[in-house]
Amino acid sequence: MKYIILLSSFVIVAFAGCTKAERNVKHYAGSYKLYKYELQYFNGDNTADSTFSIEDVAELGLYDEKSSIGNPVAYSSNSVPRSWVDNGFGLPNKWYSDNGRGKTITIGYNDPTVFGTYVTYDVERDGFRKYKWTTVVLNSNNSMNYIETLYLKKN
Amino acid sequence: MADKKSLILFAVLLLSITVHAIKPKRFLAGGDDIKASKLSIYGGGATSLMIHGSFGDFVDSYNSYNGSSGVNILEEDLKNFRFAYGYRYGVRLILPMGVGFSFNYERLYSHTSVGIKTDNRRHFRHITNTPTMGFILDKPKFRFQYNIGFCLPIIESYYEYPDGTISTGKERLLNGVYKGVSACMNFEIAYKKTLSDHLQLEAGAQLNMFAMGEYIESNWERSLVYVSNYGFVYPTALPTDYAAYSSTSWDKYNEENTVKAKAIMPGVFIQLVYTR
């Protein structure tokens, strides 16, 4: 029994030291339903203006092919999040998470022949198997233009 | 990947030491047996001062650039990390001769932030992850321990907007999750109070030190070569010279000018120990 506990603890400690990015990718990989999409617009002085939202938008697939430079993404709808368009890629072909506590997911497009583009979302749990992804896009004067929120449910 | 291989090698080494330390009964004192050794699990809380000189260099240059003598956008000066707090747990094996070893994990959090005059706030959160192996000298009332291992420190740099939205995204220059891989060393001394046959309370002091490496934002997109047609490319490390960093002359990764994963953390802890 002692040996089992000792060995288990050793494995836990060794595991704690392993690369977190791979664990985060494994954790977030899967198919999701984008059940709500929300855009909150702001005036030039950081005060809220109006909010736009739609429901049942798309299916999103985040694959784990153990790539260190981004794993494949599948997106099912023609209604594309605005930040993807504003950041110049439209439809993404890669995603990855950070090397810390899985606080962020970066999604974007990479073509080896040109410069890649991406959006980084802050990820929050929003219920059982539900996540809220948020990103902020600024105006040219560095004030908030809009906050984009993706409400996702893991299938 | 390199750090993962090192960790696996380190793990194999530790396992080998473990097996050799507990297997040969003939090395134990007369009549002693491995069954007489004591296996304990423990868990508790810890707090410490955080002395982080390299992040202090960043703080000084950030204040100098953004403060009243610079572009004057700060409500007050940003302060360095001061206190850290968190939890620790592990398993230890004490052999009959009063020496032993342990596997330990400790996680400490520290936070600092600064108000921006536009009602925004810049935050930095430091997370110190330390998986270590300890060598123990166990006495009836006291325990001395020396730990070595890895420290995987993280700085989360995020921005808080007036409506409370938190963003670690790329719309702000410093935003990101920056991680280092360092060597770690720790000394601790604990006073033991017996609560029952199997339960002890320990209170003690420790000195944590970690050094080596930088904090790197692992978002590989940042590290692509600057292409003028596609705009600004984000730096991958925190700078010690903020003025250069926020200008177009910043070399996106210049080891000389980056915040190093290096700190000293003297502190105290309290924990419960369950022994069989």
Keyword list:
heterodimer, A: 155 residues, alpha+beta, eight-stranded antiparallel sheet, 8 strands, 45% strand, B: 276 residues, mainly beta, elongated
Can you walk through the features of this model?
Helices cover 19% and strands 45% of the residues of chain A. By secondary structure, chain A is of the alpha+beta class. The longest helix of chain A has 15 residues, at 2-16. The model of chain A has no long low-confidence stretch (mean pLDDT 86). Chain B has helices at 2-22, 53-66, 242-245; strands spanning 38-49, 83-94, 99-115, 121-138, 142-160, 166-167, 176-179, 182-194, 199-211, 216-217, 263-275. Chain B contains three helices and eleven strands; from the N terminus they run αβαβββββββββαβ. Chain B is elongated. An eight-stranded antiparallel barrel of chain B has the order 1-2-3-4-5-8-9-11. With 276 residues, chain B is mainly beta. Chains A and B meet through helix 1, strand 5, strand 6 and strand 7 of A and helix 1, strand 2, strand 3, strand 4 and strand 5 of B.
Describe this structure in a few short sentences.
The complex is a heterodimer of chains A (155) and B (276). By secondary structure, chain A is an alpha+beta fold. Chain A contains 3 helices and 8 strands; from the N terminus they run ααβββαβββββ.
Question: How would a textbook summarize the main sheet of chain A?
Answer: 8 strands, antiparallel
Largest interface, per-chain counts? A-B, 49 and 58 residues
Helix content of chain A: 10-25%
Number of strands of chain A: 8
Largest sheet of chain B: 8 strands, antiparallel, barrel
How confident is the prediction overall: mean pLDDT of chain A?
A: 86
Q: Strand share of the residues of chain A?
A: over 45%
What series of H and E elements makes up the topology of chain B?
HEHEEEEEEEEEHE
Structural class call of chain B reads: mainly beta
Spatial order of the strands in the main sheet of chain A?
A: 3-2-1-8-7-6-5-4
Overall structural class of chain A, as computed from helix and strand content, comes to alpha+beta
- What form of chain A results from the Cα inertia axes? elongated
Main sheet: strand order of chain B:
1-2-3-4-5-8-9-11
- Rg of chain A, please? 18 Å
Give the topology string of chain A: H per helix, E per strand.
Answer: HHEEEHEEEEE
